[in-house]
From TrEMBL, chains A, B:
CDD domains: HAD_L2-DEX. Keywords: Hydrolase. InterPro entries: 2-HAD (IPR006328), HAD-like_sf (IPR036412), HAD-SF_hydro_IA (IPR006439), HAD_sf (IPR023214), S-2-haloacid_dehalogenase (IPR051540). NCBIfam families: HAD-SF-IA-v2, HAD_type_II. It comes from Falsiroseomonas bella. The lineage of its organism: Bacteria, Pseudomonadati, Pseudomonadota, Alphaproteobacteria, Acetobacterales. The keyword Acyltransferase does not apply. SUPFAM superfamilies: HAD-like. This is Haloacid dehalogenase type II. GO terms for molecular function: hydrolase activity, acting on acid halide bonds, in C-halide compounds. Coiled coil: none annotated. Pfam families: Hydrolase (PF00702).
Amino acid sequence: MALDQVQALLFDTFGTVVDWRNGIARDVAPFLAKHGVKADAHGFADAWRKRYRPAMKEVIDGRRPFTRLDVLHRENLEGVLRDLGADPARIPEAELDHLNRAWHRLDPWPDSIPGLTRLKKKYIIAPLSNGNIALLLNMAKRAGLPWDAILGAEVARAYKRDPKAYLNTAEILGLPPEACMLVAAHNDDLAAARKVGFATGFVLRATEHGPAQTTNLTAEEDWDVVAGNLMELADRLGCPA
Amino acid sequence: MALDQVQALLFDTFGTVVDWRNGIARDVAPFLAKHGVKADAHGFADAWRKRYRPAMKEVIDGRRPFTRLDVLHRENLEGVLRDLGADPARIPEAELDHLNRAWHRLDPWPDSIPGLTRLKKKYIIAPLSNGNIALLLNMAKRAGLPWDAILGAEVARAYKRDPKAYLNTAEILGLPPEACMLVAAHNDDLAAARKVGFATGFVLRATEHGPAQTTNLTAEEDWDVVAGNLMELADRLGCPA
């Protein structure tokens, strides 16, 4: 694919730009201690995240109207607590809500802000995430992510990997799919984007799932660009330092 | 209204943040010369803008499904050309499209960027404009407007002064209306925002409609903040220089 057509870089966010696992575990640990729930904080983060895809699938398959991720995260949080024998109804609403917003308070990987800052000089940069607008905006404001706009599932009214998530985003930008590149650490996200005509950029995030990660350790197709992090992506795309 | 509740400043854009009349006239002038259309460029800009409210009213009143502003601008441009005896069908598509995107290339007022930069330190800042996402994004990218997100009619799926334009925006941000302030140079926009519980900030733009402007020269209600420009607004809201 001719990369000189690309005008917008659209980023998967959880895992690609921010480190969700350590961020969630950081906020989960004191919550579990306070409420006497016996569980490992990283294991809790993994269990919470594991419910993410099935919850969105209800929407993608049309069994449920579009529902923002904050709502799905909250339902999933209560499910994880119940699995651990804790009754969410006995925990104050404000504490559940605060923990649910841990997804708004994730930290970027060390290369994310310098990399995005370089990429922004040449391209439109925006998240194309399943996160809702408030989540992505609060995350960006806290972390200093220099997005040009907040796009993604809530704007496109469709969750990835539904083709509409990508195509509606291109259409909103007034760009053809080939002028858009999805940047992601996940081969299946890139495959779905390529299928509708997007350019593709793979970024390796070898510890997204912790030190024993077994998935997404290599580029599984000939993606248009492959990079070890977002600074390398800026190098590959010829963005000045 | 208690201003210490305000977390997000939402800005009317055309007229309040950018100078649409001089920007449009600048791009209209060479177009008219090239196509031999005899008309004053500022008069053309006024005529184009005059069709803006009636076009949106079709959507607000439910006679037409939500249609993005780029499309309405294009229809209105062709209408103005026909009124001047020019046949848009005889002008190359690329030239009409380029002129239509003059709305993406408007310049900010001199205080807009330094003012927004200060306000951003304390508040979420975003446009709450009738402009579509691509228009507002391209404008921000070209001019350097430091928005935290691109919001407005296309995200809220409603045009101002429809109450839904304001209420849906607050809901998307996860904020109650009283945590949102509309900042605008137009008393009727502020009145609609106040009606649904928003805080209100009036900014004087005495030459939006040119040197002979007769409207919006004063705050017509006791808006929560009144300022001569966005630097003064930053002063009034206690944002550090």
